[in-house]
Every structure is written in C-alpha cells, then in structure tokens.
Amino acid sequence: MPFCLRGNATCKMEEYSVASDVSVVDVYDIASEIGKECEKLIDLFGVESVTNLMPKVINALELLENLATKNERENTMVQELSAKISQLESDKIGKAEDRQRFEKELEQIEEHWRQESRDLVAMVTRLQEENRRLAEALQESRSDSQYSSKQTTITASQEVDVAVLQHLRSMIDKQRDQIRARDRELSQKTAEIENVNWYI
C-alpha cells in the first residue's frame, strides 16, 4: 500500500496490484517516496516520530528488493524457456514435414520399382513364350535348313532373354539400394524427431 500523509489529497507512490509487476527500479522509487514522506513526518513531528518505524521500513524494502530481483531472474528464465519451447515446436513441425516428405518419396520410389519389376517380368514372360513357340516350331520342322535357321533364331532369342534377365537383376539391385538408403535416412530423421519430443 502507498505510504501517504494524513490529509494529503494525492498519493505520490504508484500502486502495484500484482507482486510480479514490481521491479528493482520500482523498489528504489518506492524507497525514495517513503523517504520523502518520512522527511515530512520529521519536519512536522520530529525525528522520534520515525525512529522506531525506519528499521522496519528498511527491512521491508530490502525484502521487497530481494523478491523483485528474484522475480526478474525468473521472468528472464521464463522468457528464455518460452523461446526455446517455441523453437523446439518449430523444429518438431519442420521435422514432421520432412518425415512426411521422405515417406512420400519412399512410397513413390517403391511404386516405381514395383512398376518396373512388373514390366520386366512381363517382358521376360513374353520372351519365354516366344521361345516356347519357336521350340515347338523347331520340333515340327524336318528340314535341315529350316532346323538350322530355327536354331539360330532360338539362340538369338535366348541371348536376348539372358540380357533382359541381367538388366532386370541390375534394376532390382539398384532400386533395393535406393530403398535401403531412404530407409536409413528416414530412420535418422525419426530418431531426431524422437529426441526433440524427449526434450519437449
């Protein structure tokens, strides 16, 4: 409560409705106002009027100063923690978006790999069917010249079949390596997100 002389129409000290509103500077201002009021009392009633009061006022002001100092430190800490939490939340959102993007890219890679695998398997199936038809035609042929020609065709088709199979294996190995790399990257991002969640 502000300290005012009786009969004084106005009060020079500012009222503080909440303790957290008081800073160290405010305490010094309050002490200055109290000092002025004490001087008025001394002028009117003599030093004896404030002799017993002053030690109590000084103790109260020192206590208020300590509380204000502690309050300022706590307010600073709260602001720093709030800023840190905001940063962590922002990082969490960013990492979640990265994770969703990586998962989407991984799904696209897997779908692309499946489609290529289906296409290559279909190609191999067609070549195998062609080889089967050529083999049946060869068995029906009795002419040596026809037999030689058919044999050459089958050999060429088999060579194409082997080349396609090798290409298929190469594509599958490449896609598998890409998927494993994406899995490792996704696992790393997931671990980072879990670490952020732990700090929060």
UniProtKB/TrEMBL annotation:
Identify one Gene Ontology CC term for this UniProt entry. Answer: cytoplasm
Any Pfam family:
RH1
User: Which chain positions lie within coiled-coil regions?
Assistant: 64-144
Q: Enumerate the UniProt keywords alphabetically.
A: Coiled coil
The processes (GO biological process) annotated in the record are: cilium assembly
Q: Does the keyword Coiled coil apply?
A: yes
Where does the source fall among the domains of life? Eukaryota
InterPro entries named among the record's database cross-references: DZIP_RILPL, RH1
Q: Which GO MF term does the entry hold, naming one? A: small GTPase binding
The signal peptide annotation in the UniProt record is: none
Q: Which residues form the RH1 domain?
A: 10-98
Q: What name has this protein been given in UniProt? A: RILP-like protein homolog isoform X1
Give the originating organism. Answer: Temnothorax curvispinosus
